[in-house]
Specification:
The chain has eight helices and nine strands. By secondary structure, it is of the alpha/beta class. The structure holds guanosine-5'-triphosphate and magnesium ion. Keywords: Glycosyltransferase, Transferase.
Length: 243
């Protein structure tokens, strides 16, 4: 879970994950030295949740502190590498802002177990998937368009290729060289799914309701949007070059 200035959201997110009936679940927060103290707050929460963990056992919550704000893609890559290296069987990536429904994690895990998919996408754009009413028509259209754009250029059939709520099989992550992932921003989501498909892993989608954040501020900016426009072309060129 990447965080930048999410002090208003993190305690609720952590508590709802810890309350899931998944005994092996461990939460890794990747904080880029948030000025609002999210990193320290995460440490306090980790101390509390790890209180009853036996020494030597895997902590229920841990924090990776990075020195500067470096983009959500790089934060995700760092956290997912760490989880994969530590041998996680499954790695869930989710935002800290309350947009992604914790209640769907069990179903996503069930689909991963039943199908062997490399990645199960919590999807806004399969039948049954819905978007917050707080999103205006313009933003909904933009999101739809960004998805169709990336999928068309890359020739995938993934409906929510830009989505950031994904459950990965550890093996799939270990097959992708996370250090070579070039996206700094949210084109990370597209780059990763494409990398999985190219390595022969299948992608399944489970419908979710996507909530708008109610606390804190969006970190979306123009640079990140431009990167997302260019990235599908770069990925396509790279894959053609290696054919
Ligand atoms: N560590 C780290 N986390 C980040 C960075 N940028 C964004 N995040 C986190 O990534 C998640 C998604 O960021 P948001 O700002 O919500 O971006 P978004 O979901 O694309 O945009 P909204 O729809 O406006 O919420 C949140 O948990 C952020 O705190 C970053 O540079 N570093
Ligand atoms: Mg968000």
């Amino acid at each position: 879970m990447p965080t930048y200035n999410e002090a208003g959201n993190l305690p609720v997110m952590a508590e709802s994950l810890m309350a899931l009936d998944l005994p092996g679940l461990s939460l890794l927060v990747v904080d880029d030295s948030s000025p609002d103290g999210t990193g320290e707050l995460a440490e306090t929460l980790a101390t509390r949740y790890n209180r009853d963990v036996e020494s030597g056992a895997r902590p229920r919550m841990s924090v990776l502190h990075r020195t500067e704000k470096n983009g959500l893609g790089r934060a995700y890559a760092a956290g997912m590498s760490q989880a994969a290296e530590q041998g996680a069987a499954y790695v869930l990536q989710m935002d800290a802002d309350g947009s992604h429904p914790v209640g769907k994690v069990g179903e996503m895990l069930g689909v991963a177990l039943a199908t062997g998919a490399g990645v199960v996408v919590g999807s806004r754009y399969v039948p049954g998937g819905t978007l917050s009413d707080a999103w205006g028509a313009h933003r909904k259209l933009l999101s739809r368009w960004a998805n169709a754009y990336a999928s068309a250029i890359l020739g995938t059939r993934v409906r929510d290729i830009t989505g950031g709520f994904n459950l990965w099989r550890g093996d799939a992550l270990r097959a992708i060289d996370l250090a070579s992932v070039g996206s700094a921003g949210y084109s990370f989501q597209v780059e990763m799914k494409y990398a999985a498909l190219r390595r022969g892993f299948s992608v399944m989608e489970v419908p979710i309701h996507f909530e708008d954040r109610t606390v804190g501020e969006s970190k979306m900016n123009l640079a990140v949007q431009l990167e997302s426009m260019a990235m599908p072309w770069k990925l396509r060129a790279r894959s053609r070059g290696s054919r």
